[in-house]
Write a structure and sequence with these properties.
Elements (H helix, E strand, L loop, with lengths): L7 H4 L2 H7 L16 E8 L4 E14 L5 E12 L12 E5 L8 H8 L2 E3 L13 E3 L9 E5 L8 E2 L11 H18 L7 E7 H15 L6 E7 L3 H5 L4 H17 L9 H22 L5 H15 L3 H6 L6 H7 L6 E3 L7 E3 L8 H6 L2 H4 L2 H16 L12 H5 L6 E3 L3 E3 L5 H10 L4 E7 L7 H9 L5 H4 L2 E6 L9 H16 L2
Parallel strand pairs: 4-7, 4-9, 9-10, 10-15, 15-16
Antiparallel strand pairs: 1-2, 2-3, 3-7, 3-8, 5-6, 11-12, 13-14
Helix pairs in contact: 3-14, 4-5, 5-16, 7-8, 8-9
């Protein structure tokens, strides 16, 4: 699950976070990990039946000299025949969430794994929510290996490893590239078609991996980007006008959902109209700043008000620039509610007036609270009861304090050199140009305020790919938030779309 808003940049506490980074609060480390455990299981949707092996194990991540960097936890699902043998012609997909600092549990037990926690619309899920065979699991199309980034879940750094070389954009991708190659070698799957499936920061990881794996002679068949973010400064730094432009259509979708705007109009049509307004009216206004003039600024504010459900006076007071925390806390203020960030359709009671610290409020998210606990509990139960895997007592479903807060966003950008914050759409474009047989799927939701749809479309449009390469990119927009799979109609639609994507040549 994404936690980009919880980075030091969003919290405004960069200096404090760096102090907490490594020396004072070191990363979790261990010299040994539990023994691997596996079980033969059966999946069914009522019509099809698959026999598969689920295996919990650690992969050794070693540098070129053989020195241990860490041990990465993996939970793999491999379809097997009656003799227990895999089909090496089947694709293998490596899947993960992002953060940085998040484990892979949400995308596994929430989304594309063979078992899934049942959801209840936009309501909070009970801890004892049923776990069922997922009728839309990716296992139908591909064997799947879920990986936890080093420092998250049950993945650990080696005792003498330097966290600064791992908790960074390029070091993270390097560790995943090594873990992926280790799994392929250990399981004899180098002949299988290879896919990556990343969510949120996992799409930044995907982007770098697309290029990096290619440079290491590992050719990919396809990549899935769910709730993508490519240009980090655009999304995480209010003050950049592209941030406000990207947020605006999501605000409009949210206002319509809560009955504050867009009455009588289809959801997709309303979103498209908001995009047209953002690009055709808001963007030129933001570009001109205080040269816009009071009369024109008021006209744009009044028009914007009809889209996002906040008053024109409120919008004018912010000179057309409404940041996410402001929108979340004001849209439903009259009802004493705050809407979510990962999925703006979720909402909760507003905090007490005594809890007015903006950075704390920014980190509170009803969409996260509603689901993560149930996912982690289902995962722990599965590992213990069905696999007999005895993991450590604590599973770091997120480790934002130690991983995210001290993350080094620097990146060796192809064609640009070292940059302080990445725009990895450049990596994606380079990877596609080098490997035009690779196919790319980009999926997102209208109610995702963590990684907004417009920004990704904008970033890719600036790569000026040839028509042939653009035809290798498939776009899917849904009526969901950041964790698209929470919404069961979206999960069904996404399952059909991904099936077609995997079938595509």
């Amino acid at each position: 699950m994404a936690e980009e808003e919880k980075t030091a940049a969003e919290k405004g506490g960069a200096a404090q976070a760096q102090t907490k980074g490594y020396a004072i609060v070191p990363a979790e480390r261990a010299s040994a990990v539990p023994e691997a455990a596996s079980a033969r299981l059966t999946w069914t949707d009522g019509e099809k039946v698959l026999e598969y092996e689920a295996r919990a194990a650690h992969l050794e991540v070693r540098d070129d000299a053989g020195a241990l960097i860490g041990r990465m936890f993996s939970l793999s699902y491999v379809v097997v025949d009656g003799e227990g043998a895999p089909n090496r012609a089947r694709p293998v997909t490596f899947a993960y969430n992002g953060g940085p600092g998040s484990s892979s549990v949400p995308i596994n037990f929430g989304g594309i794994g063979p078992k899934r926690v049942s959801t209840d619309g936009t309501r909070h899920v009970r801890a004892d929510a049923p776990v069922v065979d997922n009728p839309h699991t990716l296992l139908v199309d591909s064997d799947v290996v879920f990986l936890d980034a080093l420092g998250t879940g049950w993945s650990v750094l080696a005792e003498d490893a330097d966290p600064k070389k791992v908790f960074c954009t390029d070091g993270d991708a390097d560790a995943f590239a090594r873990a992926i190659c280790a799994w392929l070698t250990e399981n004899g799957r180098w002949s299988s078609p290879l896919y990556l499936y990343g969510e949120s920061y996992g799409t930044v990881r995907n982007s770098v991996l697309m290029r990096l794996l290619g440079e290491r002679g590992v050719q990919l068949t396809g990549v899935v980007m769910l709730s993508a973010v490519f240009n980090i400064p655009q999304l995480l730094c209010p003050g950049d006008d592209l941030y406000y432009l990207g947020m605006m259509p999501t605000y409009a979708a949210t206002a319509q959902f809560f009955g504050k705007a867009g009455a009588g109009m289809g959801e997709d049509e309303w979103f498209d109209r908001a995009v047209e307004f953002a690009e055709g009216e808001l963007a030129p206004a933001l570009l001109r700043g205080d040269r816009l003039g009071e009369e024109r600024e008021r006209a744009v504010a009044e028009r914007m008000s009809t889209f996002i459900g906040l008053s024109a006076e409120h919008i004018l007071a912010h000179h057309l620039r409404i940041d996410l925390l402001d929108f979340r806390t004001h849209l439903l203020m009259g009802e004493g509610r705050v809407c979510g960030r990962l999925d703006t359709r979720f909402c909760s009671d507003a905090p007490s007036p005594m809890q007015g610290y903006d950075m704390w409020v920014a980190g509170e998210d009803a969409a996260d609270d509603a689901l993560e606990g149930a996912w982690v509990r289902a995962f722990r139960r599965f590992c213990a009861d069905e696999l007999g895997y005895q993991g450590p007592a604590r599973y770091l479903s997120n480790n934002y304090d130690k991983v995210n807060a001290g993350w080094n966003w620097g990146h060796e950008e192809p064609g640009l050199g070292e940059v302080s914050a990445p725009n990895v759409s450049l990596d994606v474009a380079v990877a596609l140009r080098r490997n035009p047989t690779c196919k790319l799927a980009i999926l997102g939701g209208r109610y995702d305020a963590a990684t907004t749809w417009w920004n990704v479309v904008h970033d890719m449009s600036r790569q000026f790919l040839s028509p042939e390469l653009k035809a290798r990119v498939s776009w899917y927009r849904y009526g969901c938030g950041h964790m698209a799979y929470v919404d069961e109609p979206t999960l069904e639609a996404m399952g059909c779309d991904i099936h077609e994507f995997y079938e595509k040549r």
